[in-house]
Write a structure and sequence with these properties.
2 domains; 6-stranded mixed sheet; 2-methylcitrate dehydratase PrpD; 8 strands; 60s Ribosomal Protein L30, Chain: A; alpha+beta; single chain; two-stranded antiparallel ribbon; 17 helices
């Protein structure tokens, strides 16, 4: 693969599109973004808000703290923060400019505004509409498929933008992703083409992980792991990832560079790799290449699985991390494939029961499995195609995993949502 090749440029573009900055859990932030945009279209503070959302969004917003709101949780809080103080031009950092004095305004608005939440089933796992009203005026914004993808804007019941009908937003073609092509790109990439993107991710995700270790967020899973198990690299790798999630899901206002729309996946695909690279005294170039492998592997799996799914995203990101750890230990393509297969054999079926502070527990389990899968691969051990859903071909194995998460676990997802919303 050469730098001038079209596929090379697509891989660079995919990283730029997927590794972007966000503050807070991305599903409530998407609601805040849509709400802020709807208010801007309306032109004034609404007196009524109706949020219509698919089940996967409702599941991922219910339990997390909306950042910069003084600990408020849920869909209503996300919508209120967006219309009262959100800056729609900041997209996934829509709430980053809220000041401490604004929190009382948000709470006051929640106490007086009419905010309703409606479940909608459109066939899309990611589908969100925020409708705002003031006297005889109305505006609405609809986002589908990914967190900033505004496809429809309405003003006074008339479309002023309809991407689904009139436009098409171009993104880099994910169909060119395969483990073999990813491996080739990792080996031949000009570091300067990816360094800025990865440097920013290391900086942001390391900062929030350290804050999670230092501060008092949720169950403090990251810091407790270090106290219980010591500072060995296998402990530090999962502790730093868990700590980043601890802070992020409990309202920390620090930004995260995400992966495939998820901050937890961005953290999980980054922190174990950075921790392991530091322990091995890897060079900057080795670290960057390992991160490219981790993130592109995660993106590859996620694009087949779907933006939101019944399968926990930490399975995806920790699989990428496992491949990267193999690379840092000097493994080749065969060992990388073995690590991926070992991960699929172990973690398939881990359900997503919504975004929440305890996601850090699943991240810790995923990273622990990633380390074990990498070590097994480096010792010539790989789950074979005679076992479970593993195929000889690594890409087929990945598609077996994503088919289960995308298709077979659909009913599981419905039951999870039913349990969560009936408590």
């Amino acid at each position: 693969m050469k730098r001038e090749d079209n596929i090379y440029q697509i891989y660079v573009q995919i990283l730029k599109e997927e590794l972007v900055t966000a503050m807070g859990c991305t599903e409530p932030i998407a609601i805040s973004y849509a709400a802020a945009k709807a208010r801007a279209v309306l032109g004034e503070l609404p007196e009524k808000i109706v949020v219509k959302a698919s089940g996967s969004i409702i599941k991922n917003v219910k339990s997390v703290v909306v950042p910069n709101t003084g600990g408020l949780r849920g869909i209503e809080a996300a919508a209120a923060a967006g219309v009262v103080c959100g800056n729609e031009n900041k997209k996934l950092e829509v709430l980053s400019e809220i000041e401490s004095e604004d929190i009382e305004r948000i709470k006051g608005y929640l106490g007086q505004a009419d905010i309703k939440v409606e479940y909608q089933e459109t066939g899309r796992t990611f589908d969100l509409s925020v409708c705002v009203y003031k006297e005889h005026s109305q505006a609405s914004v609809r986002i589908t498929d990914y967190h900033t993808n505004i496809v429809q804007i309405e003003k006074n019941w008339k479309f002023i933008r309809d991407v689904l009908k009139d436009e098409k937003i171009e993104k880099a073609n994910r169909d060119v992703l395969s483990m073999e092509n990813i491996w080739e790109f990792v080996r031949c990439a000009d570091i300067e083409d990816v360094k800025e993107t990865l440097d920013k991710q290391i900086e942001c995700n390391m900062k929030i992980a350290r804050e999670g270790i230092r501060g008092n967020y949720g169950a403090n899973i990251g810091s407790i792991l270090l106290k219980m198990e010591g500072d060995a690299v296998q402990v530090r790798a999962k502790a730093m990832a868990a700590a980043g999630s601890d802070a992020r899901m409990n309202g920390c206002g620090l930004p995260v560079v995400i992966n495939s729309g998820s901050g937890n996946q961005g953290i999980t695909a980054t922190m174990p790799v950075v921790s392991f690279a530091a322990d091995m005294e890897a060079s900057e170039e080795q670290t960057i290449r390992a991160l490219v492998l981790s993130h592109l592997t995660s993106i590859y799996i996620k694009q087949s699985l779907g933006r939101l799914s019944a399968l926990c995203g930490c399975v995806v990101a920790s699989t990428g991390a496992s491949a990267a750890i193999v690379y840092l230990m000097g493994g080749g393509f065969a060992e990388v494939c073995a690590a991926v297969k070992n991960m699929v054999a172990n973690l398939t079926g881990m359900i997503c029961d919504g975004a929440k502070p305890s996601c850090a527990l699943k991240i810790s389990s995923g990273v622990s499995t990633a380390m074990m899968s990498a070590m097994l691969a480096m010792n010539g051990k790989c789950v074979t195609s005679t076992e479970g859903i593993i195929s000889d071909d690594v890409d087929a194995t990945i598609h077996n995993l994503t088919s289960i998460g995308r298709e077979a676990m659909t009913e599981t997802d419905r039951l999870v949502l039913q349990i969560m919303t009936s408590k």
